[in-house]
Amino acid sequence: MKKATQSRATTKFKNKQQVVYPLQGVGQIISIEKRPFKGEDLLYYIIYLEVTDMTVMVPVDKAEELGIRAIVSKKKSEEALALISEDFEPIPADWKLRYQMNLDLLKQGSIKDIATVVRALYHRSKVKELPILERKLFDSALKLLVDEVSFSLNKSKDEVEELIFNRLEAEPKKAAKKTSKKAAADPET
Fold first, then answer.
1. Residue 172 and residue 125 share a domain
2. How far apart are CA 8 and CA 142, in angstroms?
3. Are 32 and 79 found together in one domain?
4. CB burial class (10 A; 0-12, 13-18, 19+) of residue 22?
5. 112-117: long-range contacts at Cβ-Cβ below 8 A with a sequence spacing of 24 or more?
């Protein structure tokens, strides 16, 4: 395993590439460097995370395991935006269980998982005020979604945030349309 690390000449990501670090946000690889670790030279991505003004070193061999991935395509961003305005399954009433489920989704780090958390917690907050931990989780998920979608669609963060909230607010209208179309298509209901 150690020899594979040393002989590995190619990396999945390139210098100056935008990447997503789950639970941290969008960052840019500012360099790829060899650094000593336990008497061995390992290859590291040096990633600058603008949102927290933090620079992190991630071993190249651990990047995939940590969920670091490229910014999604425009199509995937649009799918995530469509997801937040779709019908959704009710989530557990127990906030601790709900919090853990949503945290696990955020750790997985896919844009659809992030959009699912934003949608679920936004609609839950309309029923009852969120506990502080869930509110922080919602804020984090929203920020992650806004950051990635803004990079993917090449729009400002303000535009993307407005777009997300417009879609979240439009949800009841869309759900009503789906129900009426379904009823019209199925005369036995």
1. yes
2. 36
3. no
4. middle
5. 112/76, 112/79, 112/80, 112/83, 114/80, 114/141, 114/144, 114/145, 114/148, 115/80, 115/81, 115/83, 115/84, 115/145, 116/83, 116/88, 117/141
Q: Over the stretch 97-146, which tens digit does the pLDDT of each residue have?
A: 989 999 999 988 899 999 999 999 998 998 889 999 999 999 999 999 99
Give the tens place of pLDDT for each residue, 10-23: 788 999 999 999 88
Question: What count of Cα atoms within 13 Å lies in the side-chain half-sphere of residue 75?
Answer: 0
Task: Check: pTM over 0.70? Answer yes or no.
Answer: yes
Dihedral (CA of 145, 146, 149, 152) sign: negative
Tell whether 108 and 166 lie within a shared domain. yes
